[in-house]
Amino acid sequence: MNNDEKIRDSNFELMRMVAMFGIVIHHLLISGADVCGYKTAYVYEESGIFGVLLNSLVVGGVDLFILLTGFFGIKKKRLSKIVKLNMDTIICSLATVFMVVAFFGQKVSLSDIVSNSYFLKNWYTTHYIILILISPLLERTLENIQVRELRNYIIILAIVNIGFGYIFKLVNVDGYNYVNFIFLYFCGRYLNLSIDQRWFEKLKKAAPIIVVLDVAFMTVGFIFYQSYGTDVSSIRFWSYNSPWVITLALAVFIIFTSIKIRSRNINYMAKGVYYIFLLHTTPVILPFVNNLTSELYLKYSYLGVLLMSVIMYVINIILGVLFYKISSSVTEIIMKLVEKILPGQRIF
Questions:
Q1: Binning pLDDT at 50, 70 and 90, where does residue 342 land?
Q2: Residue 143 to residue 157: CA distance in whole angstroms
């Protein structure tokens, strides 16, 4: 048997790695370099167009992760996933506390350590846990569902998520919550059920063009709004439930479905992807990341931001692979104890 046949497909693992690199760049652009108007007002003469263009290209990273979750579904070991997410948060929080103490000489109190390790401090982890909790309901709805029926459900959810949410600002203003996650979860399953359809093959060819047009639309649109004095906040313009960010994520996802690649190295390194997110967003490390990025941007412009992104990504994914092993081992021990206390639990 060919060795490649023993290796599972790596296209989605590669997508996760690329998406996370985009998330890192996104965070450094909006909070460190502060060139897209999230923290302070955007000034074209000072920040130019490149930061807006780059942010428009990478802003769909979070939506990509949820599409992938929906594509495969959350069907088993739900309690184990929740426990592991909390262990991931604690491990990365303790690691970042060590970093700021050892490398920056920061004094950290016990209350800071506890606060830094609290999963509710991280919006993504909190709402992903909510998604896991309600996944039995979602999977029951999606079980043996027909594509046409699922399409109707997605239209209803789009009305709620995008219409009443993004447009009318009633239930879900910016997509930073489980309401948007549910919508994307259903979209991901729709892509899974449609992947062998003839129209999907045509869409694969059109997806790169859609990405280019969508990024161009967001770039020009944002600068147009800012130039003509329209009061639109950056977090609203690039909301995760905005039609253009969702379209970007869908198009990028479709591109990766057509990539044929199998790599042990990619599959192995992808285990550390989520830890990249945690290691640069804990409350204790975030100020240092933003300050260092700001200094690099002032000295080297966007080259400094990209350099910071690469260095932080490489270091954190290496640490992430190590932390994955630790977290998985601890989670396994905890789940064995839970099984003894609650034998035969079925829902999770």
A1: confident
A2: 18
What's the pTM value of the predicted model, to 2 decimals? 0.96
Paired tokens of 106: 């920061």
Tokens of 117: 């390790």
Cβ atoms of residues 17 and 274 within 8 Å:
no
Give the pLDDT confidence score for residue 294 in this predicted structure.
98
pLDDT of residue 346: 58
In 3D, which of 123, 91, 121 has the Cα closest to residue 283? 121
Task: State the Cα–Cα distance between residues 37 and 284, nearest whole angstrom.
Answer: 23
Alpha helices in the chain (DSSP H): 11-27, 44-47, 50-58, 61-72, 78-104, 110-116, 123-142, 147-158, 178-194, 198-227, 234-237, 243-257, 264-269, 273-279, 286-300, 302-341
Residue type, 155: I
SS3 category, 264? helix
* Dihedral angle sign, alpha carbons of residues 222, 225, 227, 232: negative
Gyration radius (Cα) of the chain, Å: 21
- C-alpha neighbours within 13 Å on the C-beta side of residue 18: 15
Distance CA 64, CA 42 (A): 27
- Residue 312 tokens read as 């932080």
Contact call for residues 20 and 68 (beta carbons, < 8 A): no
Query: What does the domain layout of the chain look like in residue ranges?
Result: 3-341
Distance CA 45, CA 47 (A): 6
